[in-house]
Amino acid sequence: MPGSSSEQLRDVSEYRAAMVESLNKAIEVFCTHSEEAFDRLMTSALRPLAETMEVSRIFVDRRIKGNEHGRLERMYRWERHDDRLIVKEPGFLDKSETVSKWAKILRGGNPVSRRLSDMPADERALMDRLDLKSILLIPIFTHGDFWGCVVFQDSDNDRRLDDGCMDIIRSFALLCTDAVIRNEMENEIIRQSELNKKMESNILRLESESIKIYYDPLTGIYNRRFFDETLSRSLSTLSRSGGTLSLMMIDIDFFKNFNDTYGHSAGDDCIKTIAKILSGSVSRTDDFVVRYGGDEFAVVLPNSDEDGARMIAEKMLDNIRSCEICCDMFGATCTVTISIGVTTGKVKPRHRAGDFILRADELLYKSKQAGRNRYTFGLL
To answer: Where residue 5 falls among pLDDT bands split at 50, 70, 90?
Structure first.
């Protein structure tokens, strides 16, 4: 993620949308440019995400066959400063205690994200030796076995490289690794047309089986799929810990009239603006905003009590009002507003996502009945 103070001001939803666009560019490269030499092909696919993430280097490291302790062989090395891919660089990763610890984490299926300022002394020594400020390692498994990892390095900025976009980065790593595996298996005498068909087939397989994109293409914020899966996991976790969850359902007031008056293009712009404002109104790591469907949004606030939920609802209403999206409906000039239904409850094992959604929807309806441009709160 961006590390400078100016970059930290970049809107989160715009950054996620840029990450999705970078992933789509990589997919397009593998689908349509397979006639290029493999090093140029990999460079063309690596460049968009590397530029968005602002990393210095990307490595593809493979576990040495027959080695169960996680020793890795470096296969590909991409340098941002000269945009060049080095194929099968000789030598192996440092077999130090620190790397062994990371390998154990990777073999467990977990990514490793480190920045220099947070590291213990032994890991800092390794980072200093490699001239690194930040590093992210994404484990790759094939047929249930640890294959290796894709490594993202930053020599300039002390920052965390995951920051809410791990699914996109993981999808990219899978795509990249799949291309590496295909290239190893391809026979040099296979006709280029056959290689194109295999690559296109594998990309389609990745899209349908491996790559989970959780972002709405219009707004760049999370979509309904992310909402359904993440809310279920949050409820399961909170039920075990006895935690509290707050949920909001949000509608843009009189949006159908707005669409009918100004057209679908203006309606899309309105939805994107509202999504940006709502996303900017939450700041905790676990809180998230999704486009639930059409002009409807949902907000999930794990471990947030009534006071916290009310504060966020008021903040969202104020931010939308301050934006002053002007419209001319019902014979009068006005600004676009939203209505919110907010519920909070201590999560119990019997609770399901639908319990919170239904309650928040009921409260949203009450907000509309009471005149819109407001929130209504009620305990679950």
So the answer is: very low
Please give the torsion angle defined by the CA atoms of residues 278, 279, 281 and 282, in that order, rounded to the nearest 10 degrees.
130
Domain 5-210: state its class.
Answer: alpha beta
Distance CA 356, CA 228 (A): 12
- Retrieve residue 241's tokens: 């810990």
Residue with tokens 């490289």: 161
DSSP 162-186: -TT-HHHHHHHHHHHHHHHHHHHH-
Q: What is the DSSP letter of 3?
A: -
Domains of the chain, by residue range, sit at 5-210, 224-379
Neighbours of 247 (CB within 10 A): 28
Mean pLDDT of 203-230: 76
Place of tokens 């990249």: 176
**H helices of the chain, where?**
5-8, 12-32, 38-53, 97-107, 121-129, 166-185, 192-205, 224-241, 255-262, 264-279, 306-323, 353-369
Stretch among 25-39, 73-87, 168-182, 294-308 having the lowest mean pLDDT = 25-39
Concatenating the DSSP letter of every residue in 18-59 gives: HHHHHHHHHHHHHHH-TTS-HHHHHHHHHHHHHHHHT-SEEE
For residue 93, give every residue at least 6 positions away whose Cβ sits within 8 Å of its Cβ, in sequence order, or none.
Answer: 61, 71, 72, 73, 74, 99
Q: How far is CA 136 from the centre of its chain?
A: 15
Instruction: Compute the distance between CA of residue 121 and CA of residue 14 in angstroms, rounded to an integer.
Output: 36
Report the distance separating Cα 345 and Cα 265, nearest Å: 38
**251 within 8 A of 368, measured Cβ to Cβ:** yes
> Do the beta carbons of residue 47 and residue 193 sit within 8 Å?
no
Matching residue, tokens 């890795």 = 72
Superfamily of structural domain 224-379: Reverse transcriptase/Diguanylate cyclase domain (3.30.70.270)
- For the chain, how big is the Rg over CA atoms in Å? 24
At 123, phi and psi to the nearest 5?
Answer: -75, -35
Cα atoms in the Cβ-side hemisphere of radius 13 Å centred on 40:
5
